Amino acid sequence: MKSKQGKGINARRIITMLIVFAALAAGIWAVVSNGRNTEMKRNHPIRVGAEAPDFTAVNSKGEQVQLLQYRGKAVMINFWASWCEPCVREMPFIQELAQQNKNNVEMLFVNVGESKGTINEFMKSHQFDFPVMVDVTGKISNLYRISGLPATMMIDQSGKFSHIILGELTEDMPLQQWLEESM
Question: Which of 107, 110, 130, 89 lies closest to 182 in space, CA to CA?
């Protein structure tokens, strides 16, 4: 009887040691990951005057888009989703702004977390025809530290943030002036 009990105690010790080891490994990983994220935030702050992080994505028309290809031109990036009511409300206004400034400003629309099918269905039902980058994994929105939608960022010709707007764009904002300042 004692040998069965001894084996049971040894098995529990092994399991306990494995759990402790797994907990230690998870703790070490969390500390290391947090350190990398802190370092990234220090090196690439998202604030006016900071350089906008480069990214590459494919838009809904199948075109590859890289932010760096627009260096020398003002860029406005809008992060949105079809389930976001403020995003939907600001879309007609943004589309009009994009049409008025199509020769001077590159407008990039980044859908956060939705599938290409959902995006295409939304665009068709609302009769929008501008290309949208699909950020289903959140890679671009994480790079830009987007924590709420909508979010809009204006980038000047040198690739630096000139304006950051968190929340819904409205017609009473001096967006046209801000775009002109970015040119």
Answer: 107
Q: Is the peptide bond before 150 cis (omega within 30 degrees of 0)?
A: yes
Question: Rounded CA gap, 109 and 82, in Å?
Answer: 12
pTM for the predicted model, two decimal places? 0.75
Distance of CA 43 to the CA centre of its chain: 17
Quote the tokens at residue 105: 């400003």
CB atoms within 10 A of CB 57: 17
What is the Cα–Cα distance from 77 to 104, expressed in whole angstroms?
A: 14
Question: Which residues share a beta bridge with 109?
Answer: 78, 132
- Please list the rounded mean pLDDT of every run of 10 residues in the chain (183 residues): 62 78 64 51 77 94 93 96 96 91 92 93 92 93 95 96 95 87 84
Residue of 150, 149, 88 whose CA lies nearest to 122 = 88
Integer Cα distance of 84 and 130 in angstroms: 18
Ranges of beta strands (E only) in the chain are 56-58, 64-66, 74-80, 105-112, 132-135, 151-155, 161-166
**138 Ramachandran zone, left/alpha/beta (phi>0; psi -120 to 50):** left
Provide the strand spans (E) within 30-98: 56-58, 64-66, 74-80
